From TrEMBL:
Alphabetized UniProt keyword annotations: Oxidoreductase
Residues annotated as domain Flavin reductase like: 19-163
Keyword hit for Transcription: no
Organism: Gordonia hankookensis
Record-linked SMART domains: Flavin_Reduct
Lineage of origin: Bacteria, Bacillati, Actinomycetota, Actinomycetes, Mycobacteriales
Family annotation (InterPro entries): Flavin_Rdtase-like_dom (IPR002563), NADH-dep_flavin_reductase (IPR050268), Split_barrel_FMN-bd (IPR012349)
Record-given protein name: Flavin reductase family protein
Source organism superkingdom: Bacteria
Family membership noted in the UniProt record: Belongs to the non-flavoprotein flavin reductase family.
Amino acid sequence: MDDPNTAQVFEARYLRDVLGNFPTGVVAVTTMVTDDEPAGMVVGSFTSVSLDPPLVSFLVDRSSTTLPKILDADRFCANALASDQEWLCRQMSKRGTDRFTGVTWQQSEYRNPILDGVVAWVDCTIEKTVELGDHFLVVGRIQDLTVASVKRPLLFFRGGYGDYTSTAQLLLDSHLGR
């Protein structure tokens, strides 16, 4: 039996290939740098942490140039992208460009950008940041949240983007003649 205190070493490409079989939601994390300068990035690691207190989290690579802006603002909005927003995901993922060009959004009560057309959004203040390996875990305390549309979510799976339709929804739609 292997020593549980000895870390197994994996080749990075193999690790990515295997972990790519776990589908993830695509979330744009946004904040305001100044009163008129939004900042944002895309993460595939947004998750619920706790109901009491209401906490969520996401992971971000330590080399991120957007994370310091989010940490300085001490707040963020997690926008669950819809299946028709792959273009927005790609735009918000580009380095060295204005990620908000052509993007419509509204400002939340906590002054974070809420992107138009998303499935849902969660507005947060930063509760804690933890360094873990080559990433930072950012934990946010929920201040406000809502379901914004009934669109299907954008998912990332095996290196590509797609959407999700539940089998229950398909059955319901077939009985309702949709």
